[in-house]
Write a structure and sequence with these properties.
Largest sheet: 2 strands, antiparallel
Order of helices and strands: HEEHHHHHHHHHHHHHHHHHHHHEEHHHH
Number of strands: 4
Radius of gyration: 27 Å
Distance between the termini: 30 Å
């Protein structure tokens, strides 16, 4: 039986969907649910059913399969169970600007007035429907649309971030003492913010605020108190750490601390630490927007920060065109340090304040409220404590890594190189996994609060399967794409290529477990469980530290701390591997430590998650990942064969790197998509199918 035959599941469902869509009425010029979106989702579901018919047909010995009407009904029931909190019709009616009358329209009656009128609500009085509207993303199609909006903002921001980093290298170099000191100082606000508030805000507030939206006031009282308390804590923390700036810097970098270096580090740190407050402001504003189903602005506003920082770097380069030959610590004037650091803080300021008017448009206006009792803040304190402890453990690992990389000699992989490598590593993770998880987290939080475990499982597996499209591909593709990308980004300097590329590759081969860790962690947070992620973080950080410590030169370290050497062991830094000294491979060791620790964390976390929510069907997900791995491996092999002659023929320049990426990258992506499509990876078909159909129609 052909999968497009009249008796197929796909044909039955598709014909019903196409009959249904034209009946959708228009209210105030707004098509309820959007007719196009409904057609798109119906078309995707019909395609899914046609694939199901085909797989059943091939499974039969005579290549025929009788599809009963009960199969159609069972599938429809399953799809209805997955449709969560569908309020598109209500939303369309409520935005009517032509009439203030109470009007009721039912989808099922083809636009005829319903028996009960829909209540009109003001933005500040959304009541019990607010959580429904925040969580409703319209199934997988809605998740993909929400994720696409966030991914677009993230992509723009990351591209600007790559430009910003390239300009930073042009301004102060990469493997220099000043570059390393600047990187540590500019990273400190983010570290401190994450240490004290970041984990708490991300883990606690989204579920709490989402559930508070069901209060009679739409969660305003709760959100006002949260904002007030957060502002007070952030302001106090910022002042305290600015007062302790010298000690704070030395915690992360105490190597070769001359007077000149200490002076430069202090100025950089004082100018950067106010970012703590603005990072916190940005996060709390963004998470309230996320809880209300407004995901785009949170991912787009960092692009504004990068624009401000890039403008500052451009002015610095025009005034001080030193480049890689930037003067040492003694040559850095106060004006130079202000020109470099002040735009960085102004960028984070702009990133935060641009969200304020957007939050008002989402229906919330802040009113200071210092009455912290009676709104459930105490019930969140235990969860916040565990989340805080997990971040502390995470930062302990970061301190160890930073101290190791800061001890590297000039020209070798150091802290600045690791930060740049992490930027490359986090690009696909942010575009795909983080965007998906941000959209899914609100839904999972509401579903978990309502005890709808199956919906949580469905969203979890959806996130895992969709994130695999990029993470599996780049796990293999990084071997042919990273080095030319670094060459285009910072220039084809051999030391820079190795310093950034070696760390980036060893991180990227761990993209899959890193993504799994994030998704599993968010499921626990959705259930209000921050204790289990804490123990997962203990395991992850402990593994990473255990794999990192052997790389320390303990002879130099103890001599610097105690004034004399307590051991003669120089660690792996003093060894030789493949004809290169150990310092050459430190970045590889750091990257592999992160990858292996995430493998351990993801494995243990999944076992613990099954104990909490029961069996999670993963057989289809595993098959999808195997197919993606086959497609990625073949694409990498073809890309490598194409890269060999190109690498020798092209000039050693940024332009040469660009041509290498354009040719090899295009071939790699084409082979990957083609093979994955032939292997019938549903997620690939979901992404490429609409494009292919539009091309055919045009």
């Amino acid at each position: 039986m052909s999968n497009d035959g009249p008796g197929s599941l796909g044909a039955l469902y598709e014909s019903n969907a196409r009959r249904h869509v034209p009946q959708m009425p228009s209210v105030a010029g707004t098509s309820i649910g959007s007719a196009y979106d409904a057609w798109f989702e119906a078309d995707q579901e019909a395609q899914w059913l046609r694939n199901l018919d085909e797989s059943r047909s091939h499974a039969s010995s005579d290549h025929t399969q009788v599809i009963s009407r009960s199969d159609v009904d069972a599938y429809r029931e399953r799809r209805e169970a997955e449709k969560t909190w569908d309020t598109d019709a209500d939303a369309a009616l409520n935005v009517s600007s032509r009439s203030r009358r109470e009007v009721g329209v039912s989808r099922e009656t083809g636009g005829a007035p319903a028996t009960q009128a829909l209540p009109q609500t003001s933005p500040g009085e959304v009541g019990g429907n607010a959580a429904d509207q925040a969580a409703d993303t319209g199934g997988r199609g809605g998740i993909l649309r929400s994720s696409a909006i966030m991914a677009a903002g993230t992509l723009v921001s990351r591209v600007l971030g790559l430009l910003r980093t390239s300009m930073t290298v042009a301004a102060i170099g990469l493997s220099t003492g000043v570059a390393n000191t600047w990187d540590v100082a500019n990273t400190l606000p983010n570290i401190i913010y994450l240490l004290l508030a970041g984990g708490v805000i991300n883990a606690v507030l989204v579920p709490q605020i989402t559930r508070a939206l069901e209060h009679s006031d739409g969660g305003k009282a709760y959100t006002d108190r949260i904002f007030t308390l957060t502002f007070m804590i952030l302001a106090g923390v910022t002042v305290v750490f600015m007062a302790a700036a010298p000690l704070v810097y030395r915690l992360f970098d105490n190597n070769n601390m001359t007077d000149d270096k200490a002076h430069v580090a202090l100025i950089f740190t004082l100018l950067c630490l106010p970012q703590i407050f603005f990072y916190g402001l940005y996060t709390i504003l963004g998470q309230v927007l996320n809880a209300r189903g407004r995901f785009g602005a949170f991912m787009w506003s960092p692009a504004l920060a990068n624009v401000v920082i890039i403008a500052g770097l451009a002015a610095y380069i025009l005034m001080y065109p030193h480049g890689a030959n930037t003067p040492g610590f003694s040559g850095m004037t106060t004006q130079m340090m202000i020109m470099l650091a002040l735009p960085a803080t102004l960028g984070i300021f702009a990133q935060a304040v641009v969200l304020i008017p957007l939050l008002k448009r989402a229906g919330y206006t802040y009113s200071p409220n210092f009455q912290f009792r009676g709104v459930g803040l105490r019930s969140a304190s235990t969860m916040a404590g565990w989340a805080f402890a997990a971040v502390i453990v995470q930062q302990i690992g970061l301190v160890v890594t930073t101290q190791l990389l800061s001890s590297q000699p000039d020209g070798q992989p150091n802290k600045a190189a690791q930060s740049n490598a992490f930027l490359l590593f986090s690009l696909p993770h942010s575009l795909i996994t983080l965007s998906l998880v941000t959209a899914l987290f609100t839904r999972m939080s509401v579903a978990a609060g309502r005890g709808e475990t199956q919906k949580v499982k469905d969203d979890m597996t959806t996130g895992i399967r969709l994130s695999g499209i990029a993470s599996v591909m780049l796990t293999f593709g990084c071997f042919v794409l990273v080095f030319p990308l670094v060459g285009l980004w910072v220039g084809p300097v051999e030391s820079s290529l190795w310093a950034i590329g070696s760390i980036a590759i060893t991180m990227m081969i761990g993209l899959v477990p890193f993504s799994l860790c994030l998704i599993i962690q968010r499921v626990f947070y959705a259930y209000g469980d921050a204790k289990t992620p804490f123990w997962m973080q203990i395991l992850c950080t402990g593994t990473a530290i255990g794999l990192t410590l052997p790389w320390f030169n303990w002879h130099n370290l103890t001599e610097e701390i105690f004034g004399r050497a307590l051991t003669d062991w120089t660690g792996l830094q003093g060894a030789h591997f493949f004809g290169q000294p150990g310092v050459h491979w430190v970045g590889v060791g750091v990257g592999l430590a992160q990858t292996l620790s995430n493998v351990v964390q993801a494995s243990v976390g999944f076992v613990l998650l099954k104990r909490k929510i029961g069996h999670v069907p993963m057989s289809e997900t595993v098959r999808t990942y195997v197919r993606l791995a086959i497609a990625s491996l073949l694409a990498t092999a073809v890309g490598f064969l194409m890269q060999l002659p190109l690498h020798d023929a092209l000039p050693v320049s940024r332009f040469g790197s660009f041509l290498e990426i354009a040719v090899v990258g295009s071939i790699f992506l084409a082979v990957y998509l083609f093979v994955a499509n032939r292997l019938r990876v549903e997620e690939i078909n979901s992404l490429t199918g609409p494009v292919a159909r539009r091309l055919k129609r045009s």
